[in-house]
Specification:
Number of strands: 5
Low-confidence stretches: none
Distance between the termini: 18 Å
Largest sheet: 5 strands, antiparallel
Shape: elongated
Number of helices: 1
Order of helices and strands: HEEEEE
Structural class: alpha+beta
Strand content: over 45%
Radius of gyration: 13 Å
Length: about 80
């Protein structure tokens, strides 16, 4: 993945933080053919009170597909932090 791929992936993650559950956010880089998606699959609050979302992701780079899963929680300043992947 190059810098443009990482930026497109981060943009998709940012959109997924507020997307409806199970709505897949797709990104692609027409310059190299790499692509991916982020899908929020569950949300809720931790015992600490933080609002969190679980995500499934898929990345296709150079014809290789990788799947991932993780959780991000909203911080007091409104930003999001990945807490597990």
């Amino acid at each position: 993945m190059d810098a443009a791929d990482r930026q497109r992936m981060r943009d998709a993650e940012q959109r997924a933080y507020s997307a409806p559950l199970n709505e897949t956010i797709i990104w692609n880089n027409p310059n190299n053919g790499n692509s991916g998606s982020v899908t929020p699959v569950r949300d809720g609050r931790r015992q600490s009170g933080e609002y969190c979302r679980e995500f499934q992701s898929e990345i296709n780079v150079g014809g290789q597909r990788e799947k991932g899963y993780g959780t991000a929680c909203q911080q007091p300043d409104g930003s999001w932090k990945i807490v597990s992947n």
